[in-house]
Design a protein that fits this description.
The protein has 109 residues and is mainly alpha-helical. 44% of the residues lie in helices and 7% in strands. The protein contains four helices and two strands; from the N terminus they run E-H-H-H-E-H. It is elongated and about 60 Å long.
Length: 109
């Protein structure tokens, strides 16, 4: 039996590119009602070492974000779409035909 090996690697990110400084400012605005507590927590944005984040919704979506049911639906819909995108890319890169046996290739996220 042949040893398993990685034959292709592909990535995909959500469509909205967010700068950390914008995310920090939005967090300050959204949690302003928390008083001084939010100011104590905001340094985490600088300390995280992240300059850019990606999101499946635009930053201003959080102003009127729906409940957990809607958020969960958006998360699942986008996760499935990204998984499909990265699966198709890695399939193309690996030269496997899309009808390849599941025993020959598997994806995990």
């Amino acid at each position: 039996m042949a040893e398993p090996r990685l034959v292709a690697l592909a990535t995909a990110v959500p469509p909205y590119r967010l700068h950390q400084s914008d995310v920090r400012a939005r967090a300050r605005h959204l949690f302003a009602s928390a008083g001084g507590e939010v100011e104590r927590l905001l340094p985490v944005f600088e300390n995280a070492g992240i300059s850019t984040r990606y999101s499946c919704v635009p930053l201003d979506w959080y102003e009127d974000a729906g409940g957990w049911k809607e958020r969960n639906r958006i998360y699942i819909d986008n996760a499935v779409a990204l998984l499909e995108k990265v699966t198709r890319r890695s399939t193309q890169l690996s030269s496997f035909r899309q009808r390849a046996s599941p025993r020959r290739a598997s994806m995990r996220c």
